[in-house]
Design brief:
Layout (H helix, E strand, L loop, with lengths): L1 E3 L2 E3 L1 H11 L11 E3 L3 E3 L1 H14 L1 H4 L38 H10 L13 H12 L3 H4 L24 H15 L12 H12 L42 H10 L16 H15 L5 H11 L2
Antiparallel strand pairs: 1-2, 3-4
Length: about 300
């Protein structure tokens, strides 16, 4: 028994009361940890991150970071479950651990088509909250043996087309999309039977007699996030990790893929970099139909004639 303000209390009660008096919850961090890539994060940074998380993130992502916050049920796109340790939009090959800077971009710009808004956080605040979020998946993030993926650096990107050869890029990308990469296997097709047949004969030597019944449909895919994922229709949906209609952002997403989904890193499949750039330009051209529902309707009407 101990004396506190003249009263006798047991040890458990003493610990609980003194914790409240110093403003320290039992779950607060008292020691720093080493994160993936050898980054040491002190306890005060983790505690600061926890406070920021509780203020800005907990309503959607939940107390335990599992995506089950009080606001989650009202959201069409489920909040990220951080306990899985899966990051969809990192500037590394999908499946590898991203560098902190990739997450800071998401915090700064948000994600299109979701409730993830741009947050006006200072650099030290972004660092603190992200380091705290990592603690929801300790097996993924904590430990000096955990390695980060090789980061794609957009400053080194060399666009072989640029605006001057955009038309050529789009035409090449159209063929890559439908024949070489067969993107319509998950997304949807954007050419007629005649066009598809012609492209197929040109690139493979084999023609196409008919289109699959799902050719113009989106196909829901299995994901590691605990729910099905429907790929975007580029003429209608906003791309979540792309700011505006930026071809470099599209190129990066094609290079890296989307973590935890069936969207592959095309840098591991398509050897010729110019083809990935062409594919990015083609996707960008499809996104322009979002500006005019009338033109979009006419586009699809002509494809199915």
């Amino acid at each position: 028994m101990k004396k506190l303000f003249g009263f006798s209390i047991n040890l458990a009660a003493f610990v609980a009361i003194t914790s409240m008096l110093v403003g320290c919850e039992p779950s607060d961090f008292r020691e720093g940890v080493v994160m993936a890539g050898g980054k040491y994060v002190p306890a005060h940074t983790l505690n600061k991150g926890k406070q920021i998380y509780q203020e800005y993130c907990m309503a959607c992502h939940g107390v335990n970071g599992d995506g089950n916050g009080v606001a989650a049920k009202g959201l069409e796109v489920p909040p990220r479950n951080f306990t899985l340790g899966i990051i969809k939009f990192g500037d590394v090959i999908s499946g590898e651990l991203p560098h902190d800077e990739a997450i800071y971009k998401t915090l700064e710009h948000g994600l299109n088509g979701t409730a993830m808004l741009p947050w006006d956080l200072k650099k030290d605040q972004m660092e603190a909250v992200w380091q705290y979020i990592k603690t929801f998946a300790p097996d993924t993030w904590i430990g000096k043996d955990k390695q980060l993926g090789k980061q794609f650096d957009s400053s080194t990107f060399k666009d072989p087309y640029t605006v001057a050869r955009r038309k050529q890029a789009i035409e090449t990308g159209r063929k890559v999309y439908h024949v070489e990469a067969a993107c319509q296997a998950c997304h949807m097709g954007y050419v007629s039977l005649g066009e598809f047949d012609q492209m197929s004969r040109e690139l493979t030597g084999d023609g196409v007699e008919e289109l699959d019944e799902t050719f113009f449909q989106l196909k829901t895919q299995v994901s590691e996030h605990g729910y099905g994922v429907r790929p975007p229709d580029f003429t209608y949906h906003k791309l979540r990790s792309v700011r505006g209609n930026n071809v470099e952002d599209i190129y990066l997403r094609l290079l890296a893929g989307v973590g935890g989904t069936t969207m592959p890193a095309w840098s591991e499949t398509i050897e010729e970099d110019y083809k990935i750039w062409a594919l990015a330009y083609y996707v960008q051209s499809l996104m322009e139909y979002r500006k005019s529902p009338k033109k979009r309707a006419e586009f699809f009407s002509n494809l199915k004639k």
